[in-house]
Amino acid sequence: MATKPSSNSAILEEIRIGLAEFELVVSSPPPPTTNVSPNSVSFFARIGPNLQVSPALTKAQSFRVHRVTGDGRCMFRALVKGMAMNKSLTLSPREETHNADELRMAIKEVLCDSDKERHQYEEALIAITVEESLKRYCQRIGRPDFWGGESELLVLSKLCRQPIVVYIPAHEHTRAGYGSGFIPIAEYGADFGKSSKQGKSKKAVRLLYSGSNHYDLLV
């Protein structure tokens, strides 16, 4: 007989900080739902057969935090800001907003407007349709206050050929509620961080997820 978890609160805590692991056990996604709030909180879950996490991923790392405007675009803002900094470029506030919206609309184009390209992002589609229908998602992503999360990172890492690592504050990782530095909880597009025939390796963009669905940039 399988051992039951000691408490539901422990499970919920693992989900909250992004350490819970979900294994896809069916060949097709669960039936979509349409009763999800547009501002519902998203959590991280690795999707796919490989659920092993390297011990190195539990070690706190030190970075500087670059704060990002929390206007619903924060994940997209942090990403365009990070990609620009990796090229030694500085974006004006207007450019940052414009580029963030361009990323969001690029996702809409490949997932909602292109039957040809949509199948290339199966993991993102699974993550989306666990919570809501694709039709409902496509209606929401057109709005400038759309909140980005794991589904969008799955798409953008591939679309931009960009390695992305998401961190949480170390104190959120420890049961004691204290600690310094940042703990990586998810990685996307890792292969683009390696040199290949398709192009040179790219430096990862490091995002800080710090609750309330807000992202900042780590450098």
UniProtKB/TrEMBL annotation:
Subcellular location(s) per record: Cytoplasm
PROSITE patterns attached to this UniProt entry: OTU (PS50802)
PANTHER family, per the entry: HIV-INDUCED PROTEIN-7-LIKE PROTEASE, OVARIAN TUMOR DOMAIN-CONTAINING DEUBIQUITINATING ENZYME 3
Chief place where the protein resides: cytoplasm
Alphabetized Pfam families for the sequence: OTU
Biological function: Hydrolase that can remove conjugated ubiquitin from proteins and may therefore play an important regulatory role at the level of protein turnover by preventing degradation.
UniProt cross-references to InterPro entries, sorted A to Z: OTU_dom (IPR003323), Papain-like_cys_pep_sf (IPR038765)
Enzyme Commission designation: 3.4.19.12
Reaction catalyzed: Thiol-dependent hydrolysis of ester, thioester, amide, peptide and isopeptide bonds formed by the C-terminal Gly of ubiquitin (a 76-residue protein attached to proteins as an intracellular targeting signal)
Keywords: Cytoplasm, Hydrolase, Protease, Thiol protease, Ubl conjugation pathway
Source organism superkingdom: Eukaryota
Domain OTU: 63-219
Phosphoprotein recorded as keyword: no
BP terms from Gene Ontology: endoplasmic reticulum unfolded protein response; ERAD pathway; protein deubiquitination
Gene Ontology terms for molecular function: cysteine-type deubiquitinase activity
GO cellular component labels: cytosol; nucleus
Name used for this protein in its record: Ubiquitin thioesterase OTU
Enzyme class of the recorded protein, top EC level: hydrolase
